[in-house]
UniProtKB/TrEMBL annotation:
Protein name (Swiss-Prot/TrEMBL): UDP-glucose 4-epimerase
Pathway recorded for this protein: Carbohydrate metabolism; galactose metabolism
Organism, as annotated: Ranatra chinensis
Family: Belongs to the NAD(P)-dependent epimerase/dehydratase family.
Listed cofactors: NAD(+)
One Pfam family cited in the UniProt record for this chain: GDP_Man_Dehyd
Length: 372
């Protein structure tokens, strides 16, 4: 049984949050989750993803529709529970959108985090796991990337919000020794829970590679566009470190355990497999596993795209006792199971439009790799 009981999860209705909550409930934690449905399906104030999580685990989740920018509401929810620690997933993350609407990104991600940290501090709860990203490394100076690689040389606003939050966490933990924080730098999360009952279902336009491959495989898009086929990689296409979302989820449970065992002040860990996989390799594996065809076209490189990015994940192995276990094949299989069982995600597109005042259609098919 964990020493801490109540975990407060921000952005819990989202992709990684919902998968992580499955792992938390199964590890014996109780979960209090908040989300404002900026990028997840809203069913009259209920999170469908979390209803599914309850079905998978047979355990309840206390959910509140709450925007981190609404500090009084956040304060009210926090006061209702004895919170032991917080996992902070809530953020908006679309790279292209962040370049068009920088205020929106800085406000949501930075002010949202400041509100959260202030409410936590006021309640004497200073244990935090933060969702960071390999995007903080910018263009890699060496591969595989270790946690000591310089950060901050980033070309997009979304990535800078993650970098600025990491810098802020350094400052708050230097100012107040009570903070006990782990920042997890995710590489490229893909896949879905093996039940096929929860998965990735964003309400904003997305550019992640695997959902696009699946859209093409299922016949919703004619082909995938790959930007850059002449990079200095094994097959000329960009390389990323894809990690199964359930491995990522277990990384959070390991981080919570580490925070309970020792007062760490502030630590940073990469969560990746340590293996690079090219766009073409991922397409090939996906076709093999799902017995589908994914036609693609190769176009010119895009300015600013990173060629190769993969983790050195040894530190998490040594200090958190965590290691990614799933293969790319399992990532494809599980993603496809979710897609086949739920071709329209958590709801039909029509209902989704009404619920969120948004559509699920994407404007551009873009892919070299993902800048998150
Ligand atoms: N998916 C990736 O490729 C990836 C990679 C690296 C880091 N991350 C980070 O991991 C975290 C989770 O990502 P995800 O893929 O699950 O994204 P997601 O969009 O599926 O989940 C984030 C959730 O946060 C919610 N949210 C956003 N702003 C909010 C606010 N102000 N108040 C309350 N809720 C809010 C959204 O509605 C959404 O449900 C994010 O911080 C993201 O930046 C994701």
């Amino acid at each position: 049984m964990p020493k801490w009981k109540n975990v407060f999860v921000t952005g819990g209705a989202g992709y990684i949050g919902s998968h992580c909550i499955v792992e938390l409930l199964e590890a014996g934690y109780d979960v209090i989750a908040v989300d404002n449905f900026a990028n997840s399906v809203n069913d009259n104030g209920e999170a469908i993803s979390l209803k599914k999580v309850e079905q998978i685990t047979g355990k309840p989740v206390a959910f509140y529709q709450c925007d981190l920018l609404d500090k009084p509401k956040l304060e009210e929810v926090f006061s209702k529970h004895e919170i032991d620690c917080v996992i902070h997933f809530a953020a908006i993350k679309a790279v292209g959108e962040s370049m068009q609407f920088p205020f929106m990104y800085y406000k949501n991600n930075l002010i949202g985090t400041i509100n959260l940290l202030e409410v936590m501090q006021a309640h004497g709860c200073q244990q935090l796991v933060f969702s960071s990203s390999c995007t903080v490394y910018g263009n890699p100076e060496h591969l595989p990337i270790t946690e000591t690689h310089p950060t901050g040389n980033i070309t997009n606003v979304y990535g800078r919000t993650k970098f600025f939050i990491e810098e802020m966490l350094k400052d708050v933990s230097a100012a107040d020794k009570s903070w006990n924080i782990i920042s997890l730098r995710y590489f490229n999360p893909v896949g879905a829970h093996p039940s096929g009952d929860i998965g990735e279902d964003p309400t904003k336009p997305f550019t992640n590679l695997m959902p696009y491959i699946a859209q093409v495989a299922i016949g919703n898009k004619p082909y995938l566009t790959i930007f850059g086929g002449d990079y200095e990689t094994t097959d000329g296409t960009g390389i990323r470190d894809y990690i199964h979302v359930m491995d990522l989820a277990s990384g959070h449970v390991a981080a919570l355990k580490a925070l309970q065992n020792e007062h760490l002040r502030l630590k940073v860990y990469n969560l990746g497999t340590g293996e690079g996989c090219s766009v073409l390799q991922l397409i090939k594996k996906f076709e093999e596993v799902t017995k589908t065809k994914v036609p693609y076209k190769i176009e010119d490189r895009r300015i600013g795209d990173i060629v190769s990015m993969y983790a050195n994940a040894n530190l998490a192995k040594e200090e958190l006792g965590w290691q990614a276990k799933c293969t790319v094949e399992e990532m494809c299989k599980d993603f496809w199971r979710w897609k086949i069982k739920n071709p329209n995600g958590y709801k039909t597109d029509a209902v989704k439009q009404v619920a969120n005042g948004t559509t699920h259609t994407s404007t551009s098919v873009t892919q070299n790799g993902v800048h998150k």
